[in-house]
Write a structure and sequence with these properties.
homodimer, about 300 residues, mainly alpha, Farnesyl Diphosphate Synthase, two-stranded antiparallel ribbon, 15 helices
Chain lengths: ~300, ~300
């Protein structure tokens, strides 16, 4: 098995053990292994390398995201930046990027390495867009979809595509697995954005309503604003946040939570879920395909 | 030619143009091209890709270093973190890592990709070590060498080695070019550490004495402390820094600057320079080898 390791540097090793030990669904490496499994024995060295690459890349982005968002809790545990200073947290994330690149290189497949590099680029562009569009309450709903593709679906799609490439899929089946990962990722992120409003803090392992508090506009909010009789009034309340009037934001979060916006957003997640299942039809039937179809349902039903 | 680009994201593109336009010696890509040039036409696509990879990786680490150090000026210009917020700066660095990985993948050489991944890992480990050993005034001089290898020489050596790999060098010549890059990098960093004491702010494009102010112990300080009659007194003065007594640090910087420590450190840089030149003897004689030998002298004579 692969180990993230940390050279001879003990504090780093401890921090990573804590991060990895804190749980997480390990969905992305599972996707890479499943895609590979359609074509070859999933326990191969290369399949494990690509699974490690995708999970390590994901964790690297989480470390930096938590730093950027000043998040103190993830998966019910203290984040790295809550414990370490800014510099150490930046470097710990960079270290994980290096390890992810190393794992990707271990596949000895140049297309896979290029795919990982492209995906990290897309993720960074998406995060930058999100950062620079924060608190722009009037932004267009159409911009939401490329943003969540960049943030989440691109890595899901990279996981399934790289599994397919390494397994030796035909171009058509590689595309089908890419599409599956893409649509599953879109559904996953919409559900994530819904849970940020409707979830329970104890189950989520992080505070509810964090997106809106940070000025990040997601699908439930778009629907809420769209159907609101006086959207300018909502925006005026949000603009008071940060001026000692965080109660105004809490009121908006509660309003979104109990509005029809949650159901409207969920219907979109279901639509992406259907598209993910449709993509699977290109693939050989069997237990693996069934498991991937069930993963769509799991994604839509998850509460955490 | 390669372009770093920034997708459709204009603010990022502008920031990178400013960063790249601000100068820098472009030493690392030149090393990669020179190493490649021993074996093949240096203007090839792959040589340009690896040169772009090494310079982009270097700039990515600079963006994060400046954030970590809260540095406001580099190459006489405002750093990214002086203009952008923490989050955008972290992501801009990550974006550059992604582009560096993409350029490395364009070489279509798995060993080169692995070398870049390993080098980034070594750099991060080194930076973490530096961070966690800051203000440990009594640290061992022996720890300085692995630290500057990680921080600087590892990327110099990766530049020359990857050029050699892509050019098709024999294992012996690849090793010789690696050694050359390694020793040149060690000499370069020692000179850098000397200039941090003895340089002119106007020429350096950044404040003098920054290392000691940040608690980073470098070779001149080791020699200064070693030859000082009352090292405990020096350490006591440094410990007052940050408590409104920065004048105490300024005094120590001035003392190091005018002590014999500068010459002692420089003699070590010269020693590494000699080793770099010795490594060149394994390589075919000619203009290129001569240029690399002159680069050693340039590195030792530089004032910026």
């Amino acid at each position: 098995m692969r180990s993230i390791g940390a050279g001879a540097y003990a504090p780093l090793a401890e921090a990573f053990l804590a991060l990895l030990g804190s749980g997480g669904k390990r969905l992305r490496p599972a996707l890479a292994l499943a895609a590979y499994g359609f074509y070859a024995e999933p326990a191969s060295e290369k399949a494990v390398a690509v699974a490690a690459a995708v999970e390590t890349l994901h964790n690297a982005t989480l470390v930096h995201d938590d730093l950027i968002d000043n998040a103190l809790v993830r998966r019910g545990m203290s984040t790295l930046n809550a414990v370490w200073n800014k510099g150490a947290t930046v470097l710990a994330g960079d270290y994980l990027f290096a390890r992810a690149a190393g794992f990707a290189a271990e596949t000895e497949n140049v297309r896979v390495v290029q795919l990982f590099a492209d995906t990290l680029r897309i993720i960074c562009e998406g995060e930058l867009r999100q950062l620079f569009s924060a608190r722009q309450w009037r932004q267009a709903k159409e911009d939401y979809y490329p943003r969540i593709f960049a943030k989440t679906a691109s890595l899901f799609a990279a996981a399934t595509r790289s599994g397919a490439i390494l397994g030796g899929a035909t171009p058509e089946q590689e595309q089908a697995l890419y599409d599956y990962g893409h649509y599953l990722g879109m559904a996953f992120q919409i559900v994530d954005d819904i849970l940020d409003y409707s979830g329970q803090e104890a189950t989520l392992g992080k505070p509810v309503g964090g997106d809106l508090r940070q000025g990040i506009v997601t699908l439930p909010f778009f629907y809420y604003l769209q159907s609101h009789a006086a959207p300018e009034g909502v925006i005026a309340r949000l603009q008071q946040a940060g001026n000692g009037r965080d109660d105004q934001v809490a009121d908006v979060i509660a309003a979104v939570r109990t509005s029809g916006a949650i159901q409207q957003a969920f219907a979109e997640a279901q639509g992406f879920g259907e598209q993910a299942k449709a993509a699977l039809e290109q693939l050989p039937d069997g237990l693996l395909r069934q498991a991937l179809a069930e993963l769509v349902d799991f994604t839509l039903q998850r509460r955490v």
